[in-house]
Structure formats: structure tokens, C-alpha cells
Amino acid sequence: MRLSSAALAAAIHTVALAQDPPPKRGLVFVPNSASPEDDNIWVRPGSVLSWYYNYQSTPSAAFDNAPQDQFEFVPMIWGATDDTAFLDSVQDQLDSGRDIRHVLGFNEPDSPYGGGSGIAPSVAADVWLRNVHPLAARGVRLGLPACTGGPGGIPWLQQFLGNCSELLSRDGERRNCTYDFVTIHWYGNFEGLASHMGSYAAEFPNVPQWITEYNFDHQDLAATQSFYNTSAEYLDRMDSVARYSLFGSFRSEVSNVGPNAAMLNNDGRLTDIGSWYLGLGATGVDPKSAAPSARIGRTPLIGVAVLALITCVAVL
């Protein structure tokens, strides 16, 4: 019997489920005010998600009861600011007892489009030194700004780091900007993702990588599922990858990366990719449906029930 593409993807994932994934997998979270009850899915029992970020400096109320050591909140400074609001926010959290271990840099500063923060490298360096750099003294690990997957990303980072060093060296002593890991975004096929990661490894050798936005956008279901399974296995296996977070924790009807890339269908049920991402079995839910669909010839995976339902709207 010849398996369909979807059934083959499910069978591959069954093998992957036999091994516990490393604690790398996280959530890109921006809540949907139209369906706040759906937020609970990401912290349900059995989920392998161990951290999240929300493009902000403060935690999301939906996860107030999630212990930091089990579902770590990672603050982000999204764009440019004239003050030290980000630094003050993170320090206040540290002073109140929240175990902030990592922070993320600017969101796609090399682009003003599609949710990018669009910051000049010289401006970003000044903001970094006022808001992010001081946190290293408190033991917080710093992630470099997350540029787009375009050709201008690494050159932007090179200029940013040069500007940062110039500002730090004004007293005559040459000093470089502090950072602990690089942050990568990618939208495209698996070969492109692997190549893009290789470019970062060449530019920043031996620096851990966080893949904080990635997906194969605007593809058919078989291609999207194949990309997910291949990339998840690869990212889990690569020692150079410290963490990753698939962009897609929202309903297909609001997805800006195509309906098949979303983790939820139109009424908030987990798709196969959404359930797999939580470390669970296939659901058989068509991303474009408004109710769970019975997939003809679908072989059930290990005894995992169709999960209770969720939604997040994410923005680039």
C-alpha cells in the first residue's frame, strides 16, 4: 500500500516521538483578544514547550501561573527607544524575584516592513548600550538582534557591532559589544534554512543559535508538513542550536504565512503541525477547516486524543 504524503509525514513523526526532544522548543506568542480561552493550549500537560517570548519586555498574563523554570519568559526589546524603559523593566523583574536568564534583541531591525522595527545600526547600538548591555552584569545572557532572512541581515549586524564597539571605545580602550547568542529568522524551504544557519555559523563561529521565527510559508499541506518534520529533526539534532520557535501559533484564517503553516484551524483546533510541535500525535485536522476533518486512510498515531483548542495571533 502506498502512503499519501500526509500519512507519510505522520509516520515519520511517530518515529520522532519515540525520542524525547531536547528542551529547545519554544513559543512565539501574541494573544488573540477575540479568543483568549485558546491561550491555555500552550501550557497544557504533555507539552514540550519550555520557553516563550511575546515581542515585549513583560510576561503575558495568560502564563502568570506557569513557573519560570518550566516555561521561561524571555523579554525582547522590539525597537528603538529614547529612554531606558526596557532595562528598567527587566531589572524590576529581576529585583522582584523573576529568574530572567535571557533577553532578545531588536525584531528585524534591517527592515521596516512586515513587522520589522527598521532601525539604523548606529541608533540600535546606542539603544543597546543603554538598555541591553548592562544586563550582562546581572548574569543575563544577551541575544543579538534578529534580522530578516534577507541578504542585508548579516551586513546590518556587522555594522551594528562596529558602531557598538566605537561607542564603547570612546575612552581610548578598545572594547567590543557583549552578546551570548545569535538570533535567526527564516521563511523558505529547508535547504535555505540550513544554508542561512551556515552563513551565521561562518560569521559568528562557535556562537549558539536561536531560530526564533521560521516556517515554509504559503505552500501546500504536504510541503509544509514535510518541511516541519525535516526542520524539527534537524534543529533538535544540531548542537549549535540552543533554542527554536516555529512561527505559526495562530488560526489559519489570520495567518500571514499561509493557512497550511498555521498550528490551528479556523475554529482553533490543533492541526497536525500544531500538535506535533507540542510533542504529541497527529490530529487529522485540516488547517483550512472550521471543524476537525476525518482524513481518509489516516493511520492513528500513539494514543493521543485530539486536543482542546487554542489561538494566538502572531505578527512579524
Topology:
Blueprint: H1 5-17, E1 26-28, E2 51-53, E3 72-73, H2 85-95, E4 102-103, H3 121-131, E5 141-142, H4 153-168, E6 182-187, H5 190-203, E7 209-215, H6 221-237, E8 241-244, H7 272-277
Parallel strand pairs: 1-2, 2-3, 4-5, 6-7, 7-8
Helix pairs in contact: 1-6, 3-4
Report on the architecture of this protein.
With 316 residues, the protein is α/β, with parallel strands linked by helices. The chain has a domain at 22-36 and 47-250: TIM Barrel. It is built from seven helices and eight strands, in the order αβββαβαβαβαβαβα. It has helices spanning 5-17, 85-95, 121-131, 153-168, 190-203, 221-237, 272-277, and strands at residues 26-28, 51-53, 72-73, 102-103, 141-142, 182-187, 209-215, 241-244. The chain has a three-stranded parallel beta sheet, with no helix packed on it. A three-stranded parallel beta sheet has the order 6-7-8. Strand 4, helix 3 and strand 5 (141-142) form a beta-alpha-beta unit. The chain starts with a helix and ends in a 39-residue tail after the last helix. 43% of the residues are buried. Residues 1-19 and 292-316 have low confidence and may be disordered.
